[in-house]
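[stage:ingest] chain + small molecule (5'-O-[(L-methionyl)-sulphamoyl]adenosine)
[stage:ingest] validated
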Amino acid sequence: MATSTKYITTPIYYVNDRPHIGHVYTTTICDTWARFQRLSGHDVFFLTGTDEHGQKVEQSAEARGVSPQMLADENSAEFRNIMGMFNLTNDEFIRTTDPRHEQQVQALVQRLMDSGDVYLGTFEGWYDAGQEEYYTETKAREVDFNSPISGKPLERASEENYYFKLSAYEERLRAMFEENPGIVRPDARRNEVLGRLREGLQDVPISRTNFAWGIGVPGAPEHVIYVWIDALFNYITALGLADENSDWHTARKDYWSADIQVIGKEILWFHAVIWPALLMALELPLPSCIYAHSFWISEGQKMSKSLGNFIDLEQLQGYMERYGSDALRYFLCTQGPLGATDADFSRSQFHETYTTDLVNTLGNCASRTSAMIGKYCDGLCPSDTGECAGGGVEWPEFTASQVEASIDAMDRFDLSGSIAAAMGIVRRVDAFINETAPFKLAKDPEAADQVGNILYRCAEAIRIASCLLESTMPERIGELREAWNLGEPSGDLRSECQWGRLAAGTTINKVALFPRVELD
Ligand code: MSP
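[stage:predict] done
[stage:export] tokens:
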């Protein structure tokens, strides 16, 4: 099977915030995709990390009486801890204060200065101090000259700054969207960007002089590079793209460009417009897809600091302790805001999803099947001799089409669609057991072959579904693999999902994958 490289990124997270569900969510969905691609035999590089420069970090550090570096070290470690805590398999955790990143950012800005894409100029505009972002006149008017994030008034500010010639890329960006509409997804997000693009593009300041916590502009150290430019470059500095003589570069350069860059919808503009324009200026290939998901809200309300209703790490850990880490992953992947609308994280919805899908469907099917194989076939996988009354399912064809649908959906980053296709197999097994009633047939010794045939089909279909669900629920599917002696994943998901790979005679031990949990 041909393997290829795959590169997936999360945003890098600000160290002046505490980790919460938003960060865990984005990283978990990327992790699920990354695992799925690895199980398919691809050579995957999965990047996440922390965004550590900027005025806000400098101010928070000052308020706490520590250096910005100390604050960054402390909080970056918290984000890094999330990876182990939530079973996330990132290949690298980049920090923008890493000298290897800093040097490359300077080299990249130097390149842009040399090509004339970055120049020194004066700027006046509406500044959102909380967001460290300038607004256009139109946008400032739209928000009534108050920050839509903090509610504080925008400030009229003027600075001598280095600028990025964004305006020069307007036509090329338009052409990019026309030629490759899938570059920004979902569609609603692309349309949003296109709408704003129609207003025209102005050059953007990419340096600041009113604080010091950042990377100096080459040759003008009183200017620090705007935190967003510094941050966006992480996606290529992590691969050593601007450090040609490093081992890093040799080992990682071929991962560029990214197959998918996952972000939240609030940082769409930077990723859908400024980022591609920077890459065009650097003459680097563009990513295949920028995927902007929507937001989790909490029990029907927007999460905010003032309401104090952020679903924080402690709460998420609570869910993990009660329901297991795979249950949390399953909930995030199937019920999350991957599309254009926000999703509600509610206790009752979590419980309902767990009970319906995992306890009553997947868990129940696996445990019924293995219990019956224990009882009627001495715990050994029966062979399929062909005869099987009832059910009316062409299992090889049915599973093959579900497998294709699941793989195809995952390739499009439709996680819930991919999982639904796999769960469709399990639901069919459930119905098949009820329709064929092997537990009744087993009372008739003459029907032993038939019982074996039914149970083979159940076990084989569950095995196939489990291969597709493994990236979402690695722990529990790992348990199933062990109990049913399925061996390690082969690295060729498609052929592993072929009907008939489960060998007769394999020891099938009983499993109880998802214990029932009472709603408290
Ligand atoms: N540092 C920038 C990103 C730079 S990338 C070059 C940043 N960091 S952040 O810490 O604020 O993280 C934002 C990300 O967290 C969002 O893009 C999104 O992935 C996630 N979320 C934050 N709140 C969220 C929700 N309520 N729901 C879902 N995800 C959200 O922006």
